Amino acid sequence: MDIFLTIISGVIVYVAGQLILKLVIEPVHEMKKTIGKISHSLIENGQVIANPGFLGKEGEKETSRHLRALSSQLQASLYLVPKYDCSSILFGLPPRAKILSASTDLIALSHSVYETTEVNIYERNAKKKERICDSLGIFMSEDERWPKDLQ
């Protein structure tokens, strides 16, 4: 009888561990991975974000689609994490409002990578990038922030 109880308790512990892993840990990991992808993308596409029209029409379209996809992925990963408000505190994730704000800014940024005659587009894009980084807890040095000292 003791062997049977040992086996059953081992199975229960294994199943509980797998449930926690699949339902909590993996979605949190996916959220952090998405934030990492956004950070990578903001650096990789920095030339297009700072200088709309730099890569031409095809490059603009690709960058725009990529930023929009990241926004969608960010929101999707938000809804995968169970009890997000509690989980965010426990796992050090940004608050829900900041995730949604970053997602909105990513979509706005995806619209502003196209060539335009607007004079201050680079300033607006720099501010959007800054808001995204601040919302998601992505580090930005003071040199990267707007307004820059032009001395």
Descriptors:
6 helices, 151 residues, mainly alpha
Give a topology summary.
Elements: H1 2-44, H2 46-50, H3 56-80, H4 84-91, H5 96-111, H6 121-136
Helix pairs in contact: 1-3, 3-5, 5-6
What does this structure look like?
The chain has 151 residues and is mainly α. Helix content is 75%, strand content 0%. The chain has six helices and no strands. α1 packs antiparallel against α3 (56-80), α3 packs antiparallel against α5 (96-111) and α5 (96-111) packs antiparallel against α6 (121-136). It is elongated and about 80 Å long. The N and C termini lie far apart (81 Å).
Summarize the structure.
By secondary structure, this protein is an all-alpha fold. It has one domain.
| Main sheet properties | none
Quote the beta fraction.
Answer: under 5%
**Would you list the SSEs in sequence order as H and E?**
HHHHHH
Structural class comes to: mainly alpha
Count of helical segments? 6
Q: What is the average per-residue confidence, as pLDDT, rounded to a whole number? A: 91
Count of all domains = 1
Q: Name the overall outline.
A: elongated
Low-confidence stretches: none
**Portion of residues within helices:** over 70%
What is the rounded distance between the termini?
81 Å
Radius of gyration: 21 Å
Number of strands: 0
